[in-house]
UniProtKB/TrEMBL annotation:
One of its GO terms (molecular function) is sequence-specific DNA binding. Keywords: DNA-binding, Transcription, Transcription regulation. This is AraC family transcriptional regulator. SMART domains: HTH_ARAC. It comes from the Bacteria. Pfam families: HTH_18. Residues 199-297 form the HTH araC/xylS-type domain.
Amino acid sequence: MKKNILIPNLKPSEFDDYLFAGWRAPISGFYDRFHVSRIEDYKNHLTLPLLPHRRSVCFFIFLTKGKVIRSKGLSNYEIIPDSFFFLAADQITSLEYVSPDAEGFYCHFLPEIFNHSALKIDFEYDFPFFQITGEPLLKVSDKERVMQLLHILENENYKNREDRFGVIPLYLHALLSELKLQLEPTGQKIKNASAHLTQRYKNALSEFIYDKKTVAEFADYLAVTPNHLHKCIKTTTGKSAHHLLEDMRILEAKVLLKQTNLTIGEIAFKIGRFEPSDFSRFFRINTGITPSAYRQG
């Protein structure tokens, strides 16, 4: 993605206004760098469904009970007990559903905390579940070891001691390394070539939506013909490749409308070089409301 493209995101200190209706979560002095909490402690305060947004931090959810539905780009994922959901910073996500009995852990962190004298890691390479093309769901095979490390991290967060912050990256690294050893991806498994190409197309849309403007450009990037791409997407999703491209543009537009002060004209140009009137019509046809109404809602 081009470096001069604005990629808006929410910092942890901005979460409360976006996530909760007037409620404020108890936070530590290092909340913007690391935080872990119990899902059952905050789920009843969430404003659902949570609109598409980007965050400045990586995060994961580990569910011990109930069900949660979250998105990564254009794909929805159902999180069930003993499963993790991972998302890297700057990726679009939304929260669709949290069951009344949901329990587990939520954790966010800045990857920069691993710039530690005792650690030498390549974050995305070492932990592939955080890659934009990675499978975000993981079913654990040894829950006891995972829970031990989560409890340690929870305790360190509760202590809220800056002089102990240096141990948090070490415990977090231990947890993520343990999960890598238990790697058993679940959820949206790739069953055939069409499904595989469809997922690659969705990943490409998430990564290059500002750089590539047509299905033909994406097909060229994926080294297939536009016709073959259309057939595979239609077989897998029932939608056309162009329809998914429009879905991604709408998703980006929603984030820009809510998380930036860009004018509607600037957003129209950024996501597809639309004229403002054409963009407003496109947005209304796909969402049922105007861009201005969405921004104000």
